Structure formats: structure tokens, C-alpha cells
Amino acid sequence: MGLLRDDGKTIVRVIDTGPGIGEEEREAVLRRFYRSDKMRNTPGVGLGLNLVVAIVKLHGFRLAIHPGAGGRLEIVCPDS
Fold first, then answer.
1. Alpha carbons 25 and 39: distance in angstroms, whole number
2. Pairing of strands 2-6, 62-66
3. Which of 11, 24, 54, 64 could form a disulfide with 4, with the two C-beta atoms 3.0–4.6 Å apart?
């Protein structure tokens, strides 16, 4: 996890050790109750990222999902 400053914006970066989110699933993981096939055997109901994106949008920020193993998400907060 990290907090960065870049070109008039603040970025909250979260990195985990999970399987990552493929290009083909980036929009799907933001839907309520969506569960990737590779995550069906882990606890959860598929609300986590849906709630995150709702809060991010409410504040006028943007959520960026990056490819690769171990998921990397960024909340991009433009300076007012």
C-alpha cells in the first residue's frame, strides 16, 4: 500500500498477493455479486470492489485496475 503524488493528483495504491484481475474481467469485477471463477472457493459474496468503486465515484475520484499477478488497484484523487 502506498500514497503517491503525481502531476496534480494524489494516488492511493493497494497491492495484494492474489491472482490479479485480467483485462477481460476488469469491468465485471465492479458489478455487485460478481465472483471470478478463480475465486469461487474463497470466502466472500462479490461486493468488495463494487462498494469501493461506488465510494470512489461519490467523491469524484477514479479507480484504476492494473494487470498482472497480485492485484494492483489505485484510487486517483485529482487536486481541487
1. 12
2. unpaired
3. 11
**pLDDT given at position 33:** 85
**Phi and psi (nearest 5°) for 79?**
-70, 145
CA distance 63 to 57: 8
The set of residues, in sequence order, having a beta carbon less than 8 Å from that of 23 and lying 6+ positions away, is 67
User: Which residues, in sequence order, are bridge partners of residue 35?
Assistant: none
Tens digits of residue pLDDT in 29-43: 888 888 877 767 777
Beta strands 9-15 and 62-66, pairing class? unpaired
Helix, strand, or coil here: 68?
coil
